[in-house]
Amino acid sequence: MLTLAVWLSFVLVAGAIVFSALRLLIGPSAADRILALDTLYINAIALLVLLGIQLASPLYFEAALLIALMGFVGTVALAKFLLRGDIIE
Hints:
Helix content is 87%, strand content 0%. It is mainly α. Helix 2 runs antiparallel to helix 3 (59-84). The radius of gyration is 15 Å and the shape is flat.
């Protein structure tokens, strides 16, 4: 039963990645594209966690934590760039 739930989750997260990629490509504003990029890295984290559950390997959970850290820093930097025009003052 757990295997079925994991595979169904794989399919749903992959669908979310496709929709986020479309928003990234056709987003009307820069803010929409930043939010789509933020959603993409969150979905990548979800895929890594699901893969870690499927393969019973803790290595994927550590990779997901690293992606979360880098994604957060990247989102903050892009938002700061949109608001002020520069990242470092």
